[in-house]
Amino acid sequence: MQVVYHHTSSLRTNLLWMSGYIDLEGNSKGVIHPELGEIHTDAALRRPMRDFPPLVWFTTRIAVPACLHQSTIMLLDKVTGETRAIDGPEGSSNAIALNRLALGFPIASIPVTPWPEHAGYSTPEGQGLNESARAVGDNPDDWWVSNSPVDLLQMSEIWVSPRIANPKLQRSDHYLIDVRRMVTACRANPSAYIPPSWMPTSRAVRLAERIGVPAIQSRGGLVRD
What residues form DSSP beta bridges with 44? Predict the structure, then answer.
């Protein structure tokens, strides 16, 4: 059974589990980082999405892709609205992402296509992605893509790095069971709330009570450095 992996991080997992799907690039919501405050990811900075529509991206590799270790930080002045781009220092992408995760799916269970067979592969945008990936040691021919959101209940594996710095992914079958429980519970009760994995339990309970929703928490949790 061939499996492909979508790479994400514990900064976003609560939003993923609540939605029940991996959405197309460009649709992600802002998240709260425990040290940096509100963070938004702008897919348009990666590509303008004119040559081919938004996709969900996967790879056959479990290890965190080298291109995800690269980061450009956009600083927003909330008073003036001005933005300023800075290159993140070495290791900053891991500090921002917190714990790295790889979500594994059997290719027979989800609507994916090998990236080299997708129409976008040979477009200027596609070639730009390919060249930038190869420049840091990734192979874009390992990528698979989906034209539609992907159901998280089709997931067969989860790999998690318990470390933030120098992440090393480890398979966690008990966390997979926990995630299925949380996704199923949120589908049964759309108003349910899953707090960020970094948030202490006492704070999460108080927050859920304040906004008047039931809180669903991971039984396993993730370890921070």
Answer: none
Sole residue written with tokens 């965190």: 64
pTM of the entire predicted model: 0.85
Q: Express each pLDDT in 138-160 by its tens digit.
A: 999 999 999 999 999 999 999 99
Token pair, residue 86, equals 């800075």
Task: List pLDDT tens digits, range 158-212.
Answer: 999 999 888 999 999 999 999 999 999 999 998 888 888 887 777 777 777 776 7
